[in-house]
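Regression test case RT-17, inverse folding.

Input:
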């Protein structure tokens, strides 16, 4: 009995010693790369031309500090461009050029050139690579360059900022104002792998700056519409706002319209709510959109304001607004559905849930479904009278 106990204690001691030795040796075998030996990638631009991928990376090289602000202000920020038959090959050449281990954990922006979106096979190949490798997280921003991604990545901006941070800022600002929607890599991956392959992506354009002190500037041109796995069309930034009226997401939307009697009027949207339903009638898909919009008159070039408008004026303007919204939304939806064969409102999900047999009869051909769909729009517009009520009290 005593011998058995001694043996158990002996073996426990041996196991503990082996564990300690293995831990020490395993730890010493793990390669530790110091910060000043890494190439930290903030943004990536990928272009495709004549069967060759061109990868441009915004890299900052740190000497010792891990302070993000110091990294961003570093004069050692550099654009490194490499080419290869595959994206991975181009990335490896980037690493060799810099003689540093490329580190992607801080990457927050990916810009893809227009040519990638125009080729269904290359687009899927690129997105699959980005999604399946260690290069990027699902929450990384992704956008389309109006021409080449390298032009966007290499744009010279204020020395105190990085292009990727600047791109994120303009995407956030224009999204809040309703001119686009910020898109993450995960949104693109989901759309390509779902039964409804439609989605949109912001388009960034490089143009000459109106500011004489600046050479170039980056602006949001609008959104690219992706359907059937590739770019099918574009929507200008001033038209995107009409789609944003239907998405029930918060946005600071404003609209300008002209009236013979009231001149140019600017309205800010203070509340919006949409309800979208689908129904199959006589084997034809029908889309019903119910939209409630509350707005306030902000500016008018003929001196009208919410305080000096009569009740009849308010009613007249509400009718004008109603027509304005209905006409613009109808034209835009017709272009998206009929021409681009896309569903940016994801109402086909409702058809899938409630009219599965209809889709089955049509061999799940969403192109035909979108082409044949009938759209009905009912809008209730209301101009806030709160300012009038305050002036009367």
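Golden output:
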């Amino acid at each position: 009995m005593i011998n058995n106990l001694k043996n158990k204690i002996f073996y426990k001691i041996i196991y503990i010693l082996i564990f300690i030795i293995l831990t020490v040796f395993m730890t010493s075998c793990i390669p530790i790369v110091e910060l000043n030996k890494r190439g930290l990638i903030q943004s990536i631009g990928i272009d495709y031309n004549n069967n060759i991928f061109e990868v441009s990376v915004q890299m900052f090289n740190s000497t010792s500090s891990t302070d993000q602000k110091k990294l961003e202000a570093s004069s050692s920020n550099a654009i490194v461009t490499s080419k290869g038959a595959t994206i991975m090959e181009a990335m490896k050449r980037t690493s060799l050029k810099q003689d540093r281990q490329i580190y992607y954990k801080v990457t927050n922006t990916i810009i893809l050139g227009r040519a990638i979106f125009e080729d269904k096979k290359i687009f899927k190949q690129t997105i699959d690579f980005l999604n399946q490798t260690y290069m990027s997280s699902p929450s990384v921003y992704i956008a389309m360059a109006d021409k080449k991604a390298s032009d966007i990545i290499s744009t010279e901006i204020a020395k105190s900022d990085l292009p990727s941070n600047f791109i994120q800022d303009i995407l956030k600002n224009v999204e809040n104002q309703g001119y686009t929607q910020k898109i993450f890599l995960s949104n693109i991956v989901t759309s390509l792998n779902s039964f409804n392959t439609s989605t949109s992506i912001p388009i960034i354009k490089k143009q000459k700056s109106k500011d004489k002190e600046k050479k170039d500037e980056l602006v949001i041109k609008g959104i690219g519409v992706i359907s059937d796995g590739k770019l099918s069309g574009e929507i200008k930034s001033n038209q995107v706002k009409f789609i944003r009226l239907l998405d029930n997401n918060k946005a600071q939307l404003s609209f300008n319209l002209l009236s013979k009697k009231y001149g140019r009027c600017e309205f800010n949207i203070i509340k919006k709510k949409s309800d979208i339903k689908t129904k199959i009638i006589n084997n034809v898909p029908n889309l019903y959109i119910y939209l409630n919009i509350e707005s306030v008159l902000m500016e008018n070039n003929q001196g009208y304001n919410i305080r000096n408008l009569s009740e009849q004026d308010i009613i007249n303007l509400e009718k004008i607004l109603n027509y304005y919204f209905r006409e613009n939304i109808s034209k835009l939806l017709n272009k998206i559905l009929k021409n681009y064969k896309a569903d940016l409102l994801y109402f086909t999900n409702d058809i899938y849930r409630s009219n599965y047999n209809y889709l089955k009869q049509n061999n799940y051909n969403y192109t035909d479904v979108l082409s044949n769909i009938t759209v009905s729009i009912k809008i209730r517009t209301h101009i806030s009278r709160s300012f009038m009520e305050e002036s009367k009290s």
